[in-house]
Amino acid sequence: MTWIIVAIVMALAGTGVLVAAGIKVLAAARGLSREIAQTKAEVEPRVDLLRARNAVKAPGEG
Asked: In whole angstroms, what is the distance from residue 7 CA to residue 58 CA?
């Protein structure tokens, strides 16, 4: 009977560890999503500017 209780306690402890790791992964994914959105917001105006500059150039210009 003792072994059954020990096994149940260990299983619950293992599940708790997995839940904690999952929460950390979700938090990191949210942070990464924010960083990607911020970087995209910083880069897009520059890309648009470069595209506009390249569209204005004459065919012989590099």
From this structure: 76
4-53 per-position pLDDT tens digit: 999 999 999 999 999 999 999 999 999 999 999 999 999 999 989 988 88
Placement of tokens 């708790």 in the chain: 16
CB atoms within 10 A of CB 27: 10
- Radius of gyration from C-alpha coordinates of the chain: 26
| Other Cβ atoms within 10 Å of 54 Cβ, number | 9
**Tokens at residue 53, please?**
């500059």
In one-letter notation, the amino acid at residue 9 is V
Residue corresponding to tokens 């590099």? 62
